[in-house]
Amino acid sequence: MSTSKLPHSDNIEMAGPWVTEEDIAIVTDMLRNGWYGKDAYQYVETFEKEFAQWHGRKYALMTPNCTTSIHLLLDGLGITDGDEVIVPECTWVASAAPVVYQRARPVFADIDPETWCICPQSVKQKITDKTKAVIAVDLYGNMPGMDALKKVCDDAGIYLIEDAAEALGSKLNGVRAGKFGVGSVFSFHRTKTITTGEGGCLLLDDDTLFERCKFLRDHGRAPGTYFNTEVTFKYMPSNLQASLAYAQFKRIDELVDRKRWIWKEFEKQLADVGDIQINPEPEGVYNSVWAPAVVFGKSHGIQKQDILDGLTALGVPARPFFYPLSFLPAFSEYASDNAEKNAPISYDISERAIHLPCAFTLTQEQIKHYSDCIKKVIGA
Ligand SMILES: Cc1ncc(COP(=O)(O)O)c(C=O)c1O
Questions:
Q1: How many domains does one find in the chain?
Q2: CA nearest ligand 1 atom 4, residue
Q3: Ligand 1 pocket at CB < 6 A
Q4: What is the pLDDT of residues 94-115, one digit of tens each?
Q5: 3-state SS assignment for residue 95
Q6: CA 224, 226, 230, 236 torsion: positive or negative?
Q7: Are residues 45 and 181 in the same domain?
Q8: Quick one: average pLDDT of 58-67?
């Protein structure tokens, strides 16, 4: 793979994008030409069309970020006061925060020890007559057991939503992340596989749901009219944001290849450390590994915080695996009294795992150095 155009940093960076001169030329074209008449939303329209097609979806709606994509979808589905939405314990807060925006209740399900994604059996146990949806998160690029999740959701008559924020380019049995459930969402944050600074996208197939979400996205009005029939959101994308999305997405294969290279390099450098688990790629999965993460086996007898403190003391950046949401003060009112007992895998894995650097600036030497720091900290 040619690495001549790769971004560079003397420091080991935790996360960050790969923006090329070609990307800058496309954004410059938007800045020069993308403001008037039919050009004013041209990059938005082109990107949405191509992004939907690539995922085998009928529709795409860009939004200011992925959090707003989730919010738009929940509102579009009519999820509201008193409803329950099942989310995995281990994920970024953005998967669950929009449930609270809707005054619905997030209900936390345990994760699977192999995929680190939501566990279908745990979901089944959490379903009540108030449950309206399950949000399955493709954590770190890993894929959940979607067939089992779909069956659980179909049997209960509830929606399956896919939070694919971290999984652009992953596949499960030949189907791209972004094609599962009633709707899927992506993030184009600075730290994600493709970036627009802040940005997100909602993918849908259903005509009525698409029309509803499009209406909700722009202050409750029919496109081109100034006659608002409901008070809704302003979650519109800009042509500027979309020009960078378009440019980055043209390079999706190269970007995913590099993410996988980072993952493989960490696997190589940590190969001599026994009893660890790095992002899995079981049969049928193609993992685009937005970020590698490592779970340290119990034989190491070490906790996440000790590893993070040790790495920080060695002068490299350190970031934890996601905390169980029920452990966070932000969600305390939704946590059950037996939160840890209800989600033993999530509490156990989260306590023994860290998120590894995933910046596009990482070199082989930096990955080796970081891996050596890990070995020093755990005494391997
Ligand atoms: C799993 C997951 N869901 C949702 C989001 C929210 O994305 P954004 O920051 O674009 O709102 C993120 C981003 O970090 C994420 O990792």
A1: 2
A2: 94
A3: 65-67, 91-92, 94-95, 137, 163, 165-166, 187, 189, 200
A4: 999 999 999 999 999 999 999 9
A5: helix
A6: positive
A7: yes
A8: 98
